[in-house]
Specification:
The protein has 148 residues and is an alpha+beta fold. The protein has 4 helices and 6 strands, in the order H-H-H-E-E-H-E-E-E-E. The protein has helices spanning 5-20, 27-44, 48-53, 71-79, and strands at residues 55-62, 68-69, 83-98, 101-114, 120-134, 137-147. A 6-stranded mixed beta sheet has the order 2-1-6-5-4-3. The longest helix is centred in the N-terminal third of the chain and has 18 residues, at 27-44. This is DUF4440 domain-containing protein.
Length: 148
Amino acid sequence: MNFNRRILMVPALAAALLSVVPAYAGPDEDAIAKNLEAFRVAQVANNGEALASLSAPELSYSHSSGSIDTRESLATGTKNANYKWASLEYKNPTIRIVGPTAIVRFNFVGEQEFTADGKKVPQNLHILMNWQKQGADWKLLSRAATKL
């Protein structure tokens, strides 16, 4: 079998070009990024209804303390929280689409101020979220938090 050297160069050139071209954030990544920001804003506002609307009915929401919420208990607990967020950032988020699911990781940095005594408590967590495409929407399916 005869090989033409130019044909052998095509895969190498293609690989080189792909490594130079910046990654394209497609519509799914954009939708998840938008939902992620909406989720953060809802947390800051203690808006349980908004959190529930962004979450799947099967939500499993794990806190760094080890407690676990469902969609309903998260919404209720958020609405009845005895603190407000003085600040909350989702730093360095990464989104990886895998079929109809997305793996999202970020550093959760904020400060809670408790209503009763005004005590401020800093939060520094690593968060893992799994989002699932349900119909045309991306919904939060699970969340895990680890203290840093």
